[in-house]
Amino acid sequence: MLAAGAGPAFAHAADRGFVMLLPTGYYLFGGAAAVALSFAILTLMPPEPVTRLLRAKLRVAQLPFDDRAITSWLSFAVIVLLWLAGLFGSRDPLSNPLPLVFWTVFWVGFTLVVGLFGNLWRWLDPWYGPSRLILRTIGRADRAPLFSLPKRFGHGLAIVLLFAFGWFELVYPAPDDPELLAWVLIAYWLLNLAGILAFGHEAWTSRVELFSVFFGMISRLAPLQRVDGNRLFLRFPGGKLDDAGPLPVSAMLFLLLALATVSFDGLMRTFFWLGLTGVNPLEYPGRSAVMLPNTLGLLAVFAGLAGVFVLAVWLGRRFAGMRNPLTEMAGLLVWSIVPIALAYHFSHYLGALIINGQYALAAISDPLANGWNLFGTAGYHVVAGATAGYESAWIIWNLQSAAIIGGHLLAVLLAHALAFRLAGDARTAALSQLPLAFLMVGYTVFGLWLLSSPTGG
Q1: 81: helix, strand or coil
Q2: Strand 224-227 and strand 231-235: pairing?
Q3: Over the Cα atoms of the chain, what is R_g?
Q4: What are the sequence ranges of the domains in the chain?
Q5: Hey, CA dihedral for 443, 449, 452, 453, is it positive or negative?
Q6: CA spacing 20 to 30 A to 14: which of 39, 41, 47, 88?
């Protein structure tokens, strides 16, 4: 009944008009630049300077405090207010702050903030403060957790939660229905609170809670890094990967699933995908009619990306004659794909962030749709022209292209340094990267193609 009455899913990703499609010239230039940059780095740049660049750091500040309990309680209070808005506010997802804040401000915007400024989720974690209070109340604050999370689980539970999150966002007919979203997020918070109380905060959030795991991985790309307590350092983007160990297989699959989810979000809207599923993009029947093909499509993109990545690492290992275990090489080199995915995340969601961010600014002042104007923005007029017209589109096209090419350049540099760590010499490292470089070029071109493709649905 809920799905049948739901409106279009505006809140988490606005569909692009024709004017927002990346022009063919940008698409071709981006692909050519990706190829040129990849092989220039492989053939001309020695890996030692890249390694030194990753290790360099400049101290810029001393954080005044590290009391996570205070910021956690503030974060939890904001989340409770958003739940109330979802349950009792407007049913319009463009007037209710919950779907706008969650899908646009949090999932789109905060991911980019973490990629620039480090793991701010560590302070905003809404379970840390409440779980400490509960454990202190029942007299278990200084005791070991009741249970030990089995090592054999790895990040398997996080993979399940991430797939469920991706399925709800991309496949379910009404992911931005305010009341439904509120109940889903309440259930998710309670589930993780139970896990933290049973298995401990560190064990649960580092291996199960999907946002903690995801933001912890993304934050390694940030130029700003907190090191040795509260000291803040400026580093080359991805510099924190210099001391990163290989991810275990389950964590590697989690990261690849995160990349696949963002990629499928772009693919599922293209005329190409709609044609494969037998849907006329000019007569889109609604999400409920394509739930099965989209579910299978999400699984297929994940399996395809994981398979191609492992194949590229295996081929590179064979070409270079390396004896490192395949799982070790794949677990370390998977970090190098993250910059491309983060760049595509920015490029793909840029229009939604600009438009829906304005709706969020208006909605937070009147969360219950009862005439309030808490922050003076309730009457804010959304400027849809911010993404329309040639001048605005030109700026967005250039930002998208610059992000995609810059992400590719950073990915190749990181792969260069990580492969050198595995191989020990420049020639072997370059040989081992050849298949991975082709994969990176393909992934970059695929992202540019998605941005340039007509979309529907």
Answers
A1: helix
A2: antiparallel
A3: 22
A4: 2-452
A5: negative
A6: 88
